[in-house]
Amino acid sequence: MLFENTDQKTRTFTQAQKKLQEAKDNLIGKLDVEEIEEICQMQTEIIKLENSQAQWEKMEEQQEGQKTYESFESVPPKYSQ
């Protein structure tokens, strides 16, 4: 089950790589190499920022879950008499 998800991500990544290479090849006749490399560099930076944001959001969710668990854990149980 875990590897199926990994295979899907790998296929998606490979497809995205192919599309980016095709786009880059199409731009070669229209822009000079430096401009293309600058665009690729900016795209890389955007992806890094998106990944950082996703990691930050995940960390915040985990911290909220931890706070909820800690507040639940600190409430003493009610006993019936």
Task: Kindly list the characteristics that best describe this protein.
mainly alpha, 2 helices, 81 residues, single chain
In short:
The protein has two helices and no strands.
Question: Can you walk me through this structure?
Answer:
- This protein is mostly helical.
- The protein is built from 2 helices and no strands.
- The radius of gyration is 23 Å and the shape is elongated.
- The model has no long low-confidence stretch (mean pLDDT 80).
The Rg value, from CA coordinates, equals 23 Å
- Going by helix content, strand content and strand pairing, the class is mainly alpha
Calculate the mean pLDDT score and round it: 80
Query: Which band does the percent of strand residues land in?
Result: under 5%
Would you spell out the secondary-structure blueprint of this structure?
Layout: H1 2-28, H2 33-74
